[in-house]
Write a structure and sequence with these properties.
elongated, 15 helices
């Protein structure tokens, strides 16, 4: 079953249906047809209602405008992410624009059904999609509009970060002679200590250790010297008879004199002073050298620390690089958190671009159902009816073929069954004829023998194929029989 598409009547016919104006193949008409193609309309069907052309041409312009805005927005976003324009940016932006164009084309396509409930549900679904894509499209445009304030805020934030970093480096790397080690031990100085302090701190610590060792050694020498002097004085007083603490006051080298001299000699042997005195002299030489080195390093510490901090600041500044998309979003959030007027302006701009992206769906819904959509629904219902009728016709034809095939199958089975019955009857008739022929033959022979012949009767001839064939060919009833294979 084939159907033909109805065509609008021409001006020279008597059909009441309106006829489209003669299409002029100029650039304006081609542009209008291209814009209408963005809405998904069928020009053949639209020709029946030429008054709807202006409506769908304008709707196609709205779809094209939203796709162009999406392309510009993606170009801005990609240029910020990739750090500038490149060959791949326009290509990716064009792909995004084509995607948005096809999405809007689907969003403004005629909604199926005639009821407002179905149209409203379809409108809400498409409006939600348009809203989310509008948010994605609007954000890069908002960032570009407020770019001066965003860039200034980011640069100020970077300068504050550099100043804070420099201040922490100064605080975490003080002069070691002014409480430096205690300052660098602070938790906030993790990762902010400079390697230049390692040698100076180690030198100062070595100097302090040497000085403590010299002091302890000097104290030991002084204590042993005093004790040795006391013992020597006590022995001299005892031997000279000088009265005093620990002395008998009797002159002469008696037992007490010799004991005191022995004690003094034993203490001198047990506590020698020469080695310790030599060690103290060596420590004083090392201490003098270390004090000179520490003084020399303290003289240029400020200059070396300033150079090291400047190198750290330059390294941090090199890590900043171009301002990226995430950094711009963070800066925009910080600006709106402290400025309500800016927050209102940003949201107004954002909602404006979202509304522009939702405009095709809104225009499609609030413009109501057009006559073109009525024709489209009628054609859809007609197509459904045609399909159903065609399906029923095909179904009836298939059923009729099946019935015919079943009849033929039953007839074939009947013929086979009758042929089998006929064959059985023929075999039975053949056996009866054979039996009758043999009986007749035996009867004739017996009759001949009874007439005086003494020879024994001959054996009956066996049945042969020619007997069966002749019997088959000439049945008793005289009618020809069908030939069957034994």
């Amino acid at each position: 079953m084939t159907t033909t598409e109805p065509k609008p009547a021409s001006a020279d016919t008597d059909v009441v249906a309106p006829a489209p104006e003669q299409r002029r193949r100029d650039r304006a008409e081609q542009c209008g047809r291209w814009l209408r193609a963005l809405t998904g309309v069928d020009e053949t069907l639209l020709a029946w209602v030429p008054g709807e052309r202006a409506h769908y041409t304008g709707l196609g312009g709205v779809v094209l405008g939203t796709a162009a805005i999406a392309t510009i927005s993606m170009t801005m976003a990609l240029s910020e992410v990739l750090g500038g324009l490149s060959v791949i940016v326009p290509l990716l932006a064009l792909v995004w624009g084509v995607f948005i164009l096809n999405l809007d084309r689907w969003l403004v396509s005629p909604a199926p059904g005639d009821t407002w409930g179905r149209r409203l549900s379809t409108f809400l679904l498409r409006l939600v999609l348009a809203f989310f894509f509008g948010v994605i499209i609007a954000e890069p445009l908002v960032l570009r509009i407020f770019e001066p304030a965003i860039v200034k805020h980011i640069n100020d934030e970077r300068q504050r970060q550099l100043a804070d970093h420099e201040d922490r480096l100064v605080r975490c790397n003080p002069d070691p002679t002014a409480g430096g080690p205690a300052a660098t031990a602070s938790p906030e100085c993790g990762g902010f200590t400079l390697n230049m302090l390692a040698g100076q701190v180690a030198l100062a610590q070595e100097l302090t250790g040497r000085e403590r060792e010299a002091l302890a050694l000097r104290a030991s020498i002084d204590a042993d010297t005093a004790e040795q002097s006391r013992r020597d004085t006590l022995a001299a007083n005892e031997c000279s008879g000088t009265a005093g603490p620990g002395s008998t006051g009797r002159a002469g080298r008696g037992i007490e004199c010799r004991n005191r001299e022995a004690e003094a000699a034993e203490f001198r042997v047990a506590h020698p002073l020469e080695d310790r005195t030599a060690r103290l002299r060596d420590l004083q030489v090392v201490i003098s050298r270390l004090r000179g080195e520490v003084s020399a390093q303290q003289g240029d510490f400020q200059a070396r620390r300033t150079a090291a901090i400047a190198a750290k600041i330059d390294e941090l500044r090199s890590h900043f690089g171009p301002i990226g998309l995430l950094e711009r979003l963070r800066a925009l959030n910080e600006l709106t958190a402290s400025n309500l007027f800016l927050l209102a302006a940003i949201w107004f701009t954002r909602l404006f671009f979202i509304a522009v992206d939702c405009l095709p769906v809104a225009v499609k819904f609030f413009s109501g159902k057009t006559r073109y959509e009525d024709l489209l629904d009628n054609r859809g219902r007609s197509s459904v009816r045609i399909y159903e009728e065609n399906t029923r016709a095909v179904e009836a034809e298939i059923i009729e073929n099946l019935k015919t095939q079943q009849i033929r199958t039953r007839a074939t089975e009947t013929i086979k069954r009758e042929s089998s019955d006929l064959d059985v009857r023929w075999r039975k008739a053949k056996l009866r004829m054979t039996m009758d022929n043999r009986i007749t033959e035996l009867a004739e022979r017996m009759k001949t023998n009874s007439n005086g012949q003494d020879s024994p009767p001959p054996e009956p001839a066996p049945l042969r194929d020619d007997t069966v064939t002749s019997a088959r060919r000439i049945p008793p009833n005289g009618r020809p029989m069908p030939k069957h294979d034994d």
